[in-house]
Amino acid sequence: GAVVSQHPSRVICKSGTSVKIECRSLDFQATTMFWYRQFPKQSLMLMATSNEGSKATYEQGVEKDKFLINHASLTLSTLTVTSAHPEDSSFYICSATDRAWNSPLHFGNGTRLTVT
Amino acid sequence: AQTVTQSQPEMSVQEAETVTLSCTYDTSENNYYLFWYKQPPSRQMILVIRQEAYKQQNATENRFSVNFQKAAKSFSLKISDSQLGDTAMYFCACPRAGGTSYGKLTFGQGTILTVHP
Fold first, then answer.
1. Each residue's pLDDT tens digit, A68-107
2. Most buried in the list A22, B14, B35, B62, measured by CB within 10 Å?
3. Shortest alpha-carbon distance between residue B81 and chain A (Å)
């Protein structure tokens, strides 16, 4: 079945540094990937839609300069949290679909980011 | 705007019993899919079941079934013969773009289900 790999699973960084999170579709091509954010015991909130070969589409209230998204190939999207601050600490999850009719969304295992 | 509401923050059930998680949604789309996802302590999002809105028959996947009432915009999940491994947070979700677009999902607030031995 379709698999989405996300790396790293956990990262701790110092305030002011940048962190890159990778999301890969392992056995299918994903022209579109999605980045969600989840606080403890809360729902998933869509941050942005990552489009292969074009600019990402950000949801209202999400700072595009803070959360840089690059989707350079059909199997890889990256999210870079720039100049991270403690309030950016959260669980970030990517997802992708192979776009076939009736194909569900597949999620990565998530990345727990802690900014100290 | 599409909204998804789960009114039960927490639920508990005894092993082998049945539990129903409620979900209501609001969409202006005519054709769409609805989903239930499970998020165990590992935090991996796992698709439990999905329902196509134009199908009147309720979806069933082994011990999981839904009660889909389109007019009432209600989409509840029934778990039969509950197992300890069913302990997780459950999310109801509706695609924001409607139709066959699965990517932009709007999730409900989630229901924490605990199965007791």
1. 999 888 899 999 999 999 999 999 999 987 766 556 788 9
2. B35
3. 25
- Of A13 and A32, more confident: A13
Contacts of A32 in chain B (CB under 8 A): 103
The one-letter code for the residue type at A65 is D
Please write down the HEC assignment for all residues of chain A: CCCEEEECCEEEECCCCCEEEEEEECCCCCCEEEEEEECCCCCEEEEEEEECCCCCEECCCCCCCCEEEEEEECCEEEEEECCCCHHHCEEEEEEECCCCCCCCCEECCCEEEEEC
Cα→Cα distances A97→A18, A106, B72, B85, Å: 28, 6, 29, 26
CA distances from A28 to A64, A75, B16, B101 (A): 27, 7, 38, 17
Q: Which of A36-40, B14-18, B52-56, B68-72 has the highest mean pLDDT?
A: B14-18
- Is B108 close to A43, i.e. CB distance below 8 A? yes
Reading phi first (left if > 0) and then psi (alpha if -120 to 50, else beta), residue B99 is in left
Taking contacts as CB-CB distances below 8 angstroms, the residues of chain A near B102 are: 97, 103-105
